[in-house]
Design brief:
The structure holds 2 protein chains of 2 kinds.
Chain A lengths: L1 E14 L3 E8 L3 E7 L16 E7 L8 E8 L1 H5 L3 H17 L7 H12 L7 H15 L5 E5 L12 E4 L5 E4 H4 L7 E2 L12 H20 L8 H15 L1
Parallel strand pairs in A: 6-8
Antiparallel strand pairs in A: 1-2, 1-4, 2-3, 4-5, 7-8, 7-9
Helix pairs in contact in A: 2-7, 3-4, 4-6
Chain B lengths: L7 H10 L7 H13 L1 H18 L1 E2 L6 E2 L5 H4 L7 E5 L2 H10 L5 E4 L18 H8 L5 E5 L4 H13 L6 E4 L15 H9 L5
Parallel strand pairs in B: 3-4, 3-5, 5-6
Antiparallel strand pairs in B: 1-2
Helix pairs in contact in B: 1-2
The chains are: A alpha+beta, B alpha/beta.
């Protein structure tokens, strides 16, 4: 069995003294883990840094076997962002989330494209944090836990009807209008308007967006698998708060 | 691992040797046989050296370097610059810098880098004592000599944040073209980092 595809390196774990097991997110095969011979060596280490785009050829005896990768570097994203503290934290948070949340071998081409766009924007620190909130919504949707943000789960009013969607139910993941949600506002999550294409994102909206996606990533994907949100994501939120709130 | 027909002592020796980096079961057997052949010249002194090292070598309470004295020879050396502390990941990195002779100050060994996937957080590293040393006075510069990997640089950024507010210059090693390196043969990541950290000629 063999396939060749482009992919984003998500993680690399040492295997024995010289090799590494590398997780790569590819558009056609999803997240694939395989052995990289000499992965701990000085020629392979620069290639398997998380966030790098590589050309990966996977070979294995059967489709289910671990197999091994032959890798060539396409885009040295990690090296490009290494000196930018915020971007490096964002890159680590995104690759860690993909490592933790993606099932193995499930093709998710749209999420792959969105991830590439997010990484390409990471040199512009005014833009990418907002995009990352939307990317996390896309991640939830790609793995089957998308939020319903276009209609109110309580009244049925839709965005098209001009519904004033202001909250999100932490249980159903559905939006709730201001009127229906006010009596329960302490138990609901705020819905940042930019997520339903209403207004330009403000700093508070961006942080509220991360709180919203973080809640559902934890509740729906990570807790059931006995996992937690990665530390890198928490560091990212702390840095964003420091940057924008002083 | 198949047992040797030579008794449990030799089996134990081979199985312990096989746990050393670079040695597998077959090379451990070769090493064990070699030691037995050189019993007086190598095996007995090696056993004594291992025992002494296990008893006497400890981590320096100031910098984390391995030494048989505490503080270590580098921390105790009054001829070295006390105002510059070079932060390294492991003792092997300290030895590499000492080989180069490029750093004449003191060191601080973190004992690893922040690596969420390996379960290594900031609290698992020798960072609190670095902050103490930096704030104790007499330190003018901290050089972050950490690996040019995502984990290494994440740790470097964390240290910059942690030490923020102290009256200490925090610097880091450059990333770029190695001495003797031809551009044509360099990996794209190194070239990108070199281009990013270019400076005025």
């Amino acid at each position: 069995m063999q396939f060749t595809d482009e992919g984003i390196v998500l993680s690399a774990q040492p295997h024995g003294e010289n090799h590494a097991v590398v997780n790569i997110f590819t558009p056609s095969a999803g997240r694939v883990a395989a052995l990289v011979h000499g992965g701990q060596g000085k020629t392979r280490q620069p290639v398997i840094q998380p966030g790098n785009t590589v050309s990966a050829t996977w070979k294995g005896r059967t489709e289910d076997s671990l197999g091994h990768f032959s890798l060539e570097l396409v885009e040295p994203r990690a090296a490009t962002l290494m000196q930018d503290s915020l971007a490096l934290t964002g890159l680590t948070a995104a690759t860690s989330l993909l490592s933790l949340c993606l099932p193995e071998r499930q093709s998710l081409p749209q999420l792959y494209d969105a991830t590439k766009v997010l990484f390409e924007l990471m040199e512009d620190s005014d833009v990418w944090p907002v995009i990352m909130v939307k990317w996390e919504l896309g991640l939830l949707s790609a793995v089957g836990y998308g939020l319903i943000l276009d209609r109110c789960v309580a009244s049925g009013a839709t965005l098209e009807d001009g519904a004033d969607l202001t909250f999100v139910s932490p249980r159903s993941g559905g939006a709730v209008t201001y009127e229906a949600g006010m009596p329960y506002k302490d138990r609901l999550l705020p819905l940042p308007p930019f997520l339903i294409a209403r207004g330009e994102p403000q700093v508070g909206d961006m942080l509220a967006g991360f709180a919203l996606t973080g809640h559902f990533l934890e509740e729906r994907i990570l807790f059931p698998a006995d996992r937690q949100l990665p530390d890198a994501r928490q560091r990212l939120l702390t840095r964003l708060q420091q940057k924008y709130r002083g | 691992m198949p047992r040797t027909p030579a008794g449990p002592e030799l089996d134990r020796l081979i199985s312990l040797l096989a746990k050393l980096p670079g040695l597998g079961p077959r090379s451990a057997k070769r090493a064990a046989l070699h030691l037995l052949k050189k019993r007086d010249g190598l095996m007995a002194p090696l056993a004594v050296a291992l025992k002494e090292a296990a008893e006497k070598v400890t981590a320096c309470s100031i910098c984390g370097n391995w030494d048989s004295s505490d503080p270590c020879q580098i921390c105790a050396d009054e001829d070295r610059e006390t105002g510059v502390i070079c932060v390294v990941q492991e003792v092997a990195d300290l030895w590499a810098l000492e080989r180069s002779g490029a750093h004449k100050g003191k060191y601080h060994v973190l004992g690893g880098v922040i690596s969420p996937l390996d379960g290594v957080g900031a609290d698992d590293l020798n960072i609190a004592s670095l902050a103490q040393r930096a704030s104790a006075g007499g330190v003018s510069e901290i050089v972050l000599a950490l690996s040019a990997t995502v984990d290494g640089q994440t740790t470097a950024h964390y240290l910059v944040e942690r030490l923020e507010g102290l009256t200490v210059d925090i610097t880091r090693l450059s990333h770029g073209v190695p001495v003797g390196g031809e551009l044509d043969y360099l990996d794209e990541g190194t070239l990108a980092a070199a281009m990013k950290s270019r400076h005025k000629a």
